[in-house]
Specification:
The chain has 122 residues and is mostly helical. It is built from nine helices and no strands. Helices cover 71% and strands 0% of the residues.
Length: 122
């Protein structure tokens, strides 16, 4: 893909609020975008800056599987399916330890997981 096309697609994705696509383009082409960030519109530059800060801290973005697991935790918690939630979180300790993962959990999930001792109360 040509750089001009890349900038155009990133800008369009951000304008349309398709942040998943914009994030994908940015992660795959971070160096090219960072070198030529003046080609990006303001919102796209801010998003690129956000991802750059996360990279500097050493944080890795959540994978699709992790996001799917978090969504499932929310669904089980909303339905108050404690048994299903317990089965789901088995062997997912590392996911629940990530700070960014807690932001994806709804209040029901946070309450149940804290009560089960899977996450810290707070």
């Amino acid at each position: 893909m040509q750089k001009y096309e890349l900038f155009k697609k990133v800008n369009k994705s951000v304008e349309e609020m398709d942040l998943v696509t914009a994030r994908t383009y940015m992660e795959e082409n971070f160096e090219a975008l960072d070198e030529n960030k003046h080609q990006l519109n303001r919102n796209a530059r801010e998003l690129l800056k956000f991802f750059a800060e996360k990279r500097e801290k050493g944080e890795k973005p959540l994978t699709r599987q992790e996001l799917s697991d978090l969504n499932s935790m929310n669904i089980y918690s909303t339905r108050f399916d404690v048994r299903g939630l317990k089965l789901l979180i088995k062997d997912k300790e590392s996911l629940l330890m990530k700070k960014e993962a807690l932001g994806y959990l709804n209040s029901d999930a946070k309450t149940l997981l804290a009560g089960m001792g899977a996450i810290e109360k707070g």
